[in-house]
Amino acid sequence: QVQLVESGGGLVQPGGSLRLSCAASGFSLRSYHMSWYRQSPGQEYESIAHIDSTSNNFRYYAQTKSRFTISRDNSKNTVYLQMNALEVEDTAVYYCSRDSTTWGQGTQVTVSS
Hints:
Layout: E1 3-7, E2 10-12, E3 18-25, E4 34-39, E5 46-51, E6 58-60, E7 68-73, E8 78-83, E9 92-98, E10 102-103, E11 107-111
Parallel strand pairs: 2-11
Antiparallel strand pairs: 1-3, 3-8, 4-5, 4-9, 5-6, 7-8, 9-10, 9-11
């Protein structure tokens, strides 16, 4: 069964950092492009970052570009999102996706003082 499970979310103060993980099962992550998205309350899904299957090409979106880093460890079948200098506006449910067709259940990130 193909599955993506996000973890690492939580409550953090503004300026803090979190590292999200997305563990894949039921398939080998090394063959796929992977992405992170987020959805804030009342908002549409927003693309955050994308990494291709070779790990040679990255794409970042919007205001997270200089603060977030996507990476992957194919040996652990896991994709990561390192988030630094978090802002209140980063509060959202964060999702990872395989080729934008398979999705995890999401992990909540709350940035608040």
